[in-house]
C-alpha cells in the first residue's frame, strides 16, 4: 500500500506570499519522515500540499511537482478528492465528528467511498481499523457511544483509525501528539512505529526527541530570513541529522540554540 513520494522544486504560495520555496525531497515508502524546524518555516504548509489540502485556502497554490509512485498529484486530470483519499491526514487536535458514535466515526469514510457496503463488511473494517489504531480493546463495548466521550489520546487514536479505515497509501500527521499527555503520546508513537511497515508516514513535530525516537528520515526546514520563504535546509537519515548534521543551522536548531 505504501507509496514513494518525489517532490521537485516545489514553491507554495498564499496569494502572492511565497511561504515555502524550492523544496525537493524523496519520501520513502514504509518509513517515517519527520519534518522539524522553527515556527513559521512552512512545515504544515508543505505537509498540506502533499494531499492537496493547501489549495482549500482561497488563492493558495503550488508550483512544481509532487509525484506519488510516478503519478503527478497536481496533474490536470487528477481529482483532489481522490488524492485526499489516498493521502490521509491526522491533525494537531483530535477532531472526531462530535455527534457521531465511535463506530460511525470510523465507518463514515468507508460509507462515502462505498455506499453499498454490507453491514457485516463494515463491521469487519471498523474492527480492523480500530485494532490497527490500538483502540479496539478499549472501545469494543462502547461502539455506539459518542467519539467525543473518549480521552484526548483515545480520540487521537480514533482519528488515526478513521484515517486508516479508507486504506490510504500515505499518512500525514501534523503534530499529532502536541495536545496529548506523555502516556497518550507514547501510545501514538508506538502506533506510528507499528503502522510504518504498511504506510508512508510523514510527521511534523516540534518535539525533537519524538523525531529522533520514531522517524527513519528527518528533514530540517528553516526560514531564509525575516519575511523570506521557508526552505528545506537538509534531509537525511535521522541518526545522521541528530549526530552529525551537514548544516550549521540544523545543528544550532537541534541543540536548542534557536527556534
Ligand atoms: N492560511 C494562511 N494564509 C496565509 N498565510 C498563511 C496561512 N497559513 C500559514 N501561513 C503563513 O505561511 C508561513 C508558514 O506557516 P506554517 O504554518 O506552514 O509554518 P509551520 O512551520 O508549520 O509553523 P508552526 O511550527 O508554528 O506550526 C507562515 O508565514 C504563515 O504565517
Strand content: 25-35%
How would you describe the oligomerization state of the chains in this entry?
single chain
Largest sheet: 6 strands, mixed
What global shape is seen?
globular
- The count of strands amounts to 10
Structural class determined from secondary elements: alpha/beta
Second CATH tier, the architecture of the domain at 5-96 and 170-254? 3-Layer(aba) Sandwich
Mean pLDDT, to the nearest integer, reads: 94
| Radius of gyration from the alpha-carbon trace, in angstroms | 18 Å
Query: Which strand order does the major sheet show?
Result: 6-7-8-3-9-10
Helix content class? 25-40%
Task: Name the poorly predicted regions.
Answer: none
Topology pattern, helix = H, strand = E:
EEEHEEHEHHHHEHEHEEHH
Domain ABC transporter: 5-248
Keywords: ATP-binding, Nucleotide-binding, Translocase, Transport
Protein name: Phosphate ABC transporter ATP-binding protein (PhoT family)
GO molecular function: ATP binding; ATP hydrolysis activity; phosphate transmembrane transporter activity
Walk me through this protein's architecture:
The protein is of the alpha/beta class. It has a domain at 5-96 and 170-254: Rossmann fold (3-Layer(aba) Sandwich), CATH 3.40.50.300. The protein is 36% helix and 26% strand. The chain contains 10 helices and 10 strands. The chain has helices at residues 43-50, 80-86, 102-113, 119-132, 136-139, 152-165, 182-195, 208-214, 238-243, 248-254, and strands spanning 5-14, 17-27, 31-36, 60-68, 71-72, 87-90, 170-174, 200-204, 217-223, 230-237. The strands form 2 sheets. It has a 6-stranded mixed beta sheet with strand order 6-7-8-3-9-10, sandwiched between helices. The chain has a 4-stranded antiparallel beta sheet with strand order 2-1-4-5, with helices on one face. Strand 9 (217-223) and strand 10 (230-237) form a beta hairpin. The longest helix has 14 residues, at 119-132. It is globular. The mean pLDDT is 94. The site of adenosine-5'-triphosphate has 13 residues, from strand 2 and helix 1. The site of adenosine-5'-triphosphate (ATP) has 13 residues, from strand 2 and helix 1.
Amino acid at each position: 500500500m505504501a507509496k514513494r513520494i518525489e517532490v521537485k522544486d516545489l514553491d507554495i504560495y498564499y496569494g502572492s506570499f511565497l511561504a515555502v520555496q524550492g523544496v525537493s525531497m524523496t519520501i520513502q515508502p514504509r518509513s517515517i519522515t519527520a519534518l522539524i524546524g522553527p515556527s513559521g518555516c512552512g512545515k504544515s504548509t508543505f505537509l498540506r500540499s502533499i494531499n492537496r489540502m493547501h489549495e482549500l485556502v482561497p488563492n493558495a497554490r503550488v508550483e512544481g511537482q509532487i509525484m506519488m509512485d510516478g503519478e503527478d498529484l497536481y496533474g490536470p486530470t487528477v481529482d483532489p478528492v481522490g488524492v485526499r483519499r489516498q493521502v490521509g491526514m491526522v491533525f494537531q487536535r483530535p477532531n472526531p465528528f462530535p455527534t457521531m458514535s465511535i463506530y460511525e466515526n470510523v465507518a463514515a469514510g468507508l460509507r462515502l467511498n462505498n455506499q453499498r457496503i454490507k453491514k457485516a463488511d463494515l463491521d469487519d473494517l471498523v474492527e480492523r481499523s480500530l485494532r490497527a489504531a490500538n483502540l479496539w480493546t478499549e472501545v469494543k463495548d462502547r461502539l455506539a457511544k459518542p467519539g467525543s466521550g473518549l480521552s484526548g489520546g483515545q480520540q487521537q487514536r480514533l482519528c488515526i483509525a478513521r484515517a486508516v479505515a479508507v486504506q490510504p497509501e500515505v499518512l500525514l500527521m501534523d503534530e499529532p501528539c502536541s495536545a496529548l499527555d506523555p502516556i497518550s503520546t507514547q501510545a501514538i508513537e508506538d502506533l506510528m512505529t507499528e503502522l510504518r511497515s504498511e504506510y508512508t508516514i510523514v510527521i511534523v513535530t516540534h518535539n525533537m526527541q519524538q523525531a529522533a525516537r520514531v522517524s527513519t528520515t528527518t528533514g530540517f526546514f528553516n526560514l531564509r530570513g525575516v519575511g523570506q520563504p521557508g526552505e528545506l535546509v537538509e534531509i537525511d537519515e535521522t541518526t545522521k541529522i541528530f549526530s552529525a548534521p551537514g548544516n550549521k543551522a540544523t545543528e544550532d536548531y537541534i541543540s536548542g540554540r534557536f527556534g
